[in-house]
Amino acid sequence: MMDLYGVIKSLHVISVIAWMAGLLYLPRLFVYHAETEVGSAQSELFKTMERRLIRAIMNPAMIATWVFGIWMLALTPDWLEQGWLHAKLLLITGLTAVHHVFSTWRKAFERDQNRHNARVFRIWNEVPTVIMVAVVFLVILKPF
């Protein structure tokens, strides 16, 4: 029989990969979408792609990431005493906030009410990457 913790950890990692894929791709879609004419066929295609990405991949992956992460913590409560985990949870909370910002922007595009230029989305495209790098180093190195 497989180790329950190992299965949960594997599902957590799979969820994180799917969530990160969306967090890295969605703002890139926003860059291209911001450069298209409102109401054009291309703009409507971007709306469909963004909606499907966030609803079918990103939202379920984010929820699964949190569920499996909390489940792992329930199985290893002594980790809650370690500083690296507190830092990781703070960063993941920030990543969740970024997810919600992206969701708000997607809804603005859906209503043809985007107020940002492509440069803003290019900058925001880097935020999930920076957070991801920090989280990976915390989890692997456990510096404190």
The termini sit apart by 34 Å
Going by helix content, strand content and strand pairing, the class is: mainly alpha
Uncertain spans, ≥5 residues at pLDDT below 50? none
What would you call the shape? elongated
Largest sheet: none
Annotation field: number of helices: 5
Strand content: under 5%
The count of DSSP E runs of length 2 or more, i.e. the number of strands, is 0
The radius of gyration over CA amounts to 17 Å
Oligomer: single chain
Helical fraction: over 70%
How would you spell out the order of helices and strands? HHHHH
Give average pLDDT, whole number. Answer: 97
Number of domains: 1
Describe the fold and architecture.
There is one protein chain. α2 runs antiparallel to α3 (83-110). This protein has five helices and no strands. It has one domain (4-141). The longest helix has 35 residues, at 41-75. By secondary structure, the protein is mainly α. The protein is elongated.
